[in-house]
UniProtKB/TrEMBL annotation:
Pfam families: Amdase (PF17645). The lineage of its organism: Archaea, Methanobacteriati, Methanobacteriota, Stenosarchaea group, Halobacteria. Keywords: Isomerase. One of its GO terms (molecular function) is isomerase activity. It comes from the Archaea. This is Maleate isomerase. InterPro entries: Iso_Racemase_Enz_sf, MaiA/AMDase.
Amino acid sequence: MSEPSERSERVGLVVPSSNTTAEPEFRAHLPDSVTIHGARMALESVTVDELDAMSDDAARAAELLGHADIDAVAYACTTGSLLHGPGFDAELEERLTEAAGVPAVATARSVVRGLEALDAERIAVVTPYTSNLDAKEQDFLEAAGFEVASIDGRGLAANTAIGALTPDDAFQQVREHVDPAALDAVFVSCTNYRSLAVVDDLESKLGVPVITSNGATLWDLCGAADLAVDGPGTLFNHDR
């Protein structure tokens, strides 16, 4: 009788139901030996009310992923993990860790960890969001100790519309609305905004580090799970 094959490494993603970007972007940069397992929370529009309701489903989603014997889990939603201001991201990580029984990261906290790893202080932010969510994100980042030199949003609420944006859309938004002078980093927000593919090109054009929501979450998740990952951009040259 043959010996059972060695167990693969596994990561879990808790994502909004309408997110079509996080899993493909993670898959593109994880080793083939690592499998991705998703759980979804209901969300169609990126609004304060829907994001607030969605966060109530997070622990249950993480608990179910724990049944799959994952190595770590990520709450892959930026605004959903900063909605209630400073401390909510850390609280969310604690809730998911308890529910899944493995290390957990939440995108908003992952972004902060990534910017801190880069020693970034003055940053520019681009988003697909409406102005009220941009304001909440700016407040969160400033409370975390960063100077937000500029923030530009596309004004979109429907998450399918955000998911329909292309990496070139992200590239053009950054090039049109970010002045890299005196910046330490640029942050492209939203786990449903396809932008990870243009990080290297943006860093080459701007001369400063560029992080994205999915990039920061992937970097943080793999650090929490002690998994090797070769992602794009300066951030992946730093330890968690």
